[in-house]
Design a protein that fits this description.
- The structure holds three protein chains of three kinds.
- In chain A, 84% of the residues lie in helices and 0% in strands.
- Chain A is mainly alpha-helical.
- Chain B is 37% helix and 21% strand.
- Chain B is built from ten helices and ten strands.
- Chain B has helices spanning 41-48, 71-79, 96-101, 110-118, 122-135, 150-164, 180-197, 208-214, 237-244, 257-264, and strands at 2-10, 16-25, 30-34, 56-61, 64-65, 81-84, 168-172, 200-204, 217-222, 225-230.
- Chain B has a six-stranded mixed beta sheet, sandwiched between helices. In chain B, strands 2-1-4-5 form a four-stranded antiparallel beta sheet, with helices on one face.
- The chains are: A mainly alpha, B alpha/beta, C mainly alpha.
Chain lengths: 264, 273, 288
Amino acid sequence: MLAGLGLLVAWSWRGVGFDPGALFDADGRAQILTYIRKLFPPDLAPGLLLKVVYWSLETFAMSFMGTMLSIGIALALVFAASRNLAFSGVLFEVEEAGRPVRVARIVLHVAARALLNLLRTVPHIVWALIFVFAVGLGPFAGVLALGLHTGGVLGKLFAEVVEDIDTQPLEALQATGANRRQIFCYGVLPQALPQLVAYGLYRWEVNIREAIILGYVGAGGLGQQIQIAISLFLEHQLLTLLLAIYLMVTLVDYLSAFLRRRLL
Amino acid sequence: MYQLEKVTKQFDRGLMAVDRVDLGIRRGERLAVIGPSGAGKTTLFRLLNLTIPLTSGRLSIAGQEVGALRGARLREHRRRIGTVYQQQNLVPRLRVIHNVLAGRLGAWSFLRAVRSLIRPTREDIRAAHAALSRVGIPEKLWARTDELSGGQQQRVAISRVLLQNPEVILADEPVSSVDPSLAHAIVRLLMDLSGTSGKTLIMNLHSVDLALAYFPRVVGFRDGRVAFDRSPAQVSDDLLVSLYAGSSPSHPTEESPDAEAAVRGCAPVFRPQ
Amino acid sequence: MRKPPSAAAPPFSDRSKARTSTLLGLAFLAAFLGSWHLAQIHPLALFEAEGRRNMARFLAGMFPPAHSPEFLLGLWRPLLETIQISVMGTVLAIVIGFPLGLLGTASLSHRGTLHDAELAGAPARRLGRMLPYVLARGVLSVFRCIPEFVWAFMFVRAVGLGPVPGVLAIGISYGGMLGKVYSEILENQGQQASEALQATGASRWKVLLYGMLPQALPQLVAYTLYRWECAVRASAVLGFVGAGGLGQQIELSMRMFNFNEVITLVLVLLLLVAAMDAFSARLRAALV
């Protein structure tokens, strides 16, 4: 097993042409150092800083709305995507509908799952490109791309959480004469909520990073500015943007951890 | 109130949990159901509170046959039956007040239910508080349900039944997971509630002690059938032995520990959860 | 509804939670409205004629997916390259992340039972121990908070196109992530085994080798394998900026508007990811 891994690494090493020697010898070092020196000092002109703040907020907004959209999609689909809400389990034991409705329910469930899979396997970049075509450049395309892709990811996770809850309290609620929607609000949601919130916040942390990547292909924000700075060889601006990215990502990580502690 | 005629419940794997049971229960009557584990008592209760459909036979409530009821009419009947389970009646992360008010879900519209989750009305708060006072824990109104002890949670479940204000109270082993000292108090509480309001009370009990001490009618249930249906005075030791004997699957001919304990009059071994 | 005068009035709300809930709710509302505006959300754009036409053209161009034998054969090299980048990237990430992670573990550097006896009453020494810890954590933080994408095109500028910048980018950014998670895993190991070993007179590093590492190994391996799966996905994306592999092919095809090629590439990528998932699951079962 280990030998196999070793072979894999060796083969990759050769294939990539990874040559630490070349990287770290005089030439390589000089190349890297020159580049690094070009970056400093960061451009801190007030005009630029103001714009950087705006772009940072734009990226933040893209990740935030994208995450919101994805939560919306996931919640909308979770009814059909979870077995115990779609067609089986304690909520359906005394079945009031005939065969065709039951079959329809199962079909709906399978369709929901398939849709979620489609949403999440198409890479977010491809979604972004599609939406840039549809609604033009700018953060809106990024919001849609993040929303759809992450919606697929969260939908699957949400369904798993909902399927794992305790059914006995649901039965008790059912015995009081509650209907399915009420049972969902009083029985399913309270049990599932902590995990759902945790997953949502975790995806926000991922999305703030992806928002930058999507910006590169035209979805606005810091990512797009990075692409512009690189093509116009504005290295000092690039460093400023990098600092902004670092601050933004750290901020979102911190907020997410804070909210997780507070809400759970 | 209840009329069962040859009611049968068979599960998918051929397991006959309830086997052609005939039973009649009058309105306002109080009866206890006893029997060994696996006799089908819980299944019987789930049939009585309309959670599962029966396989064959007729089940009537207040003269109305309920086997074919669906949708809103079914829920309307469920609303008139209040159930207390052995455990996990309540939603753990909800506050006690919401669990208590859940008793009204059968009467509330969906929107009303959601609004109550966000902000219960003053009248509802007062009603919940009154119900909790009746069971002795009014101070827990806003506590999170999973912070309460087992006995307290059972009392919250009873409060929920109070708010539901049903015509029938079904209690499926309500004290099996509770301290023995508390068990008597809870059984007495339920007897009280049904006595003062004329509600029918049907209780499934593991402890023969409690059944014989409090209930005017005792039904022995075994292997899905009614073994006997008598007043406590008429329940002899022999009857109890035959009810519980041979109930342990690994020793079909020996007397089970349940039978011994039943005859000697002590509560059977605490049931593991 | 009149209460009997002897009954106490119930508390009508839950004071403790009410205020924080309102604050959070307001903050959320502000964030939501602000973001709606900043992200230039205009849902109607989805239904405009021009957008629909573009989408239609885009989707039509994708079918049928390119499947000529020359094209498919030509994908072989980028596919292998993507795998190689992911492997080397992960290896580099381990090389970077492991030592930094060790330095960044509080229970190894200055906190907890391993150090109480040694450092008690010696504030200068404690500070001296804390310094590498803080530095290591800072470096790891910088490495992992800058997305690998950004690292990638900086390296492309610095060392040129090809797979090497991809390897470096993954190595550094994933190194940051691995380092942080490694230190968290090590921190979560129970103190007792370490204490017992220390009582035999073992030094910090021996305690690490004999105590913490063997305990933590399954979790460390599991997370590293998970990161490798992510690295495969990432190397494809990094190709977009010129770091080789399938991603670079996607970028080329997109630039030439050959959408049918794009969709084939995406499908190949999906298959690769699925295969990697299965392979790493098997690997995990065998190693743990």
